[in-house]
Amino acid sequence: MNDTRIASEAVAAYLGINFGDPDNGSAELRRAMNVGAITGILMGVGPSGISNVVPTKEDNLRNTIAQMKNDAVLKRIVAENFGKAQDDQHVGMFFDSFDKYGITEERLTKSL
Length: 112
Description:
The protein is mainly α. The protein is 79% helix and 0% strand. It contains four helices and no strands. The longest helix has 41 residues.
């Protein structure tokens, strides 16, 4: 609601409708608002709109950097999972050696 009021006051000021402030509706204010609108269109909407409409090559720098970041994340995930699998295998070998030599839980606790 507050944004609507501010927007309506700005439009009224641009059109020269004075709400008690003598600076509202001045030529200088209108000129500044025109410059701001043109700058917003050219710098905000223009480049992003063009980049969304114009087809880009898949091998551009932005996609390459994004792919490299994704690859680094995948490498880290795979390495962590490989390490965990090795740890599981080592623990399995440890417990298999207990079975091989007939070491029971009771015998292990007595030896500690």
